[in-house]
Amino acid sequence: MELTVTDKTEVLKDWLRDAYAMESQAVEMLERQVGRIENYPELLAKAKEHVEVSKRQADRLKDCLAQLGTQPSSIKTGIQMLIGNAQSLSGVVAPDEIVKASVFNYAFEHFEIANYRALIAAAESAGKPEIARILKQSLDEELEMAGWLEQRIPQVTQTYLTRRETMSASEAKR
Ligand SMILES: [Fe+2]
């Protein structure tokens, strides 16, 4: 038996709250990374830009929830922000942090992409095309970020390894 429009709207609200928590997690992780990236100016600039993009995406989700007469869940958001904090600290002592963070961010972008695709389908199914249209803007931004990272990961890895080689070469001279 198919869900009623009211039931579908309840599911949509719940998923929008999850997505708001996800974007809060993204902001938390990226802000931590921004504070730690050195020697990779292009990556730093893109991370800073994506902090602002993610904040806008969170605002959009809040607007969608407001249109449905509700708001984000402070419990869900709080938990995700704690996770985001822990994730961004996990690489603290690793010298290859920049490579690991790029790989993680690429995976996280795809997590976001998948969530927006599900949300858009849910909004359409619940007869909320305006909400689907708003979410599509965020989906396009995540696709852009994922594409950017996809191109940069080999280059960041090469740069990292070249620097490591330079370091061991100078260590060898001593
Ligand atoms: Fe995002």
Q: Please, could you describe this protein's structure?
A:
With 174 residues, this protein is mainly alpha-helical. The chain has one domain: Up-down Bundle (Ferritin), CATH 1.20.1260. Helices cover 84% and strands 0% of the residues. α1 packs antiparallel against α2 and α1 runs parallel beside α3. The radius of gyration is 19 Å and the shape is elongated. It starts with a helix and ends with a helix. The mean pLDDT is 92. Fe (ii) ion binds next to α1 and α2. This is Ferritin-like domain-containing protein. Pfam families: DUF892. InterPro entries: DUF892_YciF-like (IPR010287), Ferritin-like (IPR012347), Ferritin-like_SF (IPR009078), YciF (IPR047114).
Bulk shape:
elongated
Mean model confidence by pLDDT: 92
CATH topology: Ferritin
DSSP strand count = 0
Count the domains. Answer: 1
Which cofactor or ligand species appear? Answer: fe (ii) ion
Cα(first) to Cα(last) distance is 75 Å
InterPro entries: DUF892_YciF-like (IPR010287), Ferritin-like (IPR012347), Ferritin-like_SF (IPR009078), YciF (IPR047114)
Pfam families: DUF892
Protein name: Ferritin-like domain-containing protein
Organism: Azospirillum oleiclasticum
Please outline the helices and strands.
Layout lengths: L4 H30 L6 H27 L6 H16 L7 H29 L3 H45 L1
Helix pairs in contact: 1-2, 1-3, 1-4, 2-5, 4-5
The structure holds fe (ii) ion.
Main attributes of the structure:
single chain, 174 residues, mainly alpha, Ferritin, 84% helix, elongated, binds fe (ii) ion, DUF892_YciF-like, Ferritin-like, YciF, Ferritin-like domain-containing protein
